[in-house]
Amino acid sequence: MSYQIISGSKMAKNIIENLKKEVKDFQSSSSIVLGLAVVIIGDNPASRVYVNHKKKACEEVGLTSFEYSLPKDVSEKELLKLIQDLNQDKRVHGILVQLPLPDHLDPEKILLEIDPSKDVDGFHPFNLGQMLRGYPHFLPCTPYGIVEMLKRSNIQTESQHVVVIGRSNIVGKPLGAMLLQKGANANATVTICHSRTKDMEKITQQADILVAAIGKPLFVKADMVKKGAVVIDVGINALQDAQAPKGYRLVGDVAFEEVAPRCSAITPVPGGVGPMTIAMLLTNTLKAGQYLMNQKGETS
């Protein structure tokens, strides 16, 4: 059967074009120059690529980007002090600590230190709690991007069975919670599969919308997918390939070539969910500035 390619790259480009005007109008009317601080620890190549993409996107929409590159052996005390300083810095409206962190740093403790009003990644317990209650402040960027992709592709979620493979705090859990909410672009029945799930294939075969966010290259095969399903591939993995120019090629958690013919729609890797994650980060940063301006208006 023929299938639709859900291009996150194209959607993100449209979102960023709109953000350019929104950011310009906001900054002109509010005299607030929006700033995003990105903290990167160590020399993880994938993290460096992500940070560079985020920095470029900030410049494109007119946000000020502040990068703090710290050595991999930075102490927890030093990192917490930096975050405390950024919380107080009036030039900074959004703070992002690039994950994963080195083993000696506790991500929960680090993320908890970020001011919830500057938590544009949406990982602080306050923001996660607001999301679960149905009154979101900032939504986690990757799940936010996935929901936006489904919306912009006119893919209905109401009454659909969504199966998510992966229960991470970054993608699986928050995405499931978002799609369970009452309201537009939600109202789904959600099943989350993970490493302890029995008969996973029987469950994934029931999915109207299947989301792979497990971090295992080419994990989802054709026999795991119902004919006509929508497949969202969150994974991005480097596979060694001597014939590729860089010695490796990027693949998702889905075996695209064999799965795509069974789908009604599918996201590619690269060019799928990744660009939307960055677009939603910039959207959240603009929201942070708008919240600040509203607070000033209420207290003036």
> What does the main sheet amount to?
6 strands, parallel
Q: What's the shape?
A: globular
Number of distinct beta strands: 11
Tally of structural domains: 2
For the record, give the distance between the C-alpha atoms at the N and C termini, rounded to a whole number: 60 Å
| Helix and strand run | EHEHEHEHHHEHEHEEEEHEH
Radius of gyration: 19 Å
CATH class of the largest domain: Alpha Beta
Number of helices in the DSSP assignment? 10
Give average pLDDT, whole number.
95
Helix content: 40-55%
- Name of the CATH superfamily of the largest domain: NAD(P)-binding Rossmann-like Domain
- What strand line-up does the widest sheet have? 1-11-8-7-5-6
Strand % is: 15-25%
Relevant terms:
42% helix, Rossmann fold, single chain
Brief overview:
By secondary structure, this protein is an alpha/beta fold.
Description:
The mean pLDDT is 95. This protein is 42% helix and 17% strand. It folds into two domains: 31-115, Leucine Dehydrogenase, chain A, domain 1 (Rossmann fold, 3-Layer(aba) Sandwich); 141-274, NAD(P)-binding Rossmann-like Domain (Rossmann fold), CATH 3.40.50.720. It has a six-stranded parallel sheet. A three-stranded parallel sheet has the order 3-2-4, with helices on both faces. Strands 9-10 form a two-stranded antiparallel sheet. The chain is of the alpha/beta class and 300 residues long. The radius of gyration is 19 Å and the shape is globular.
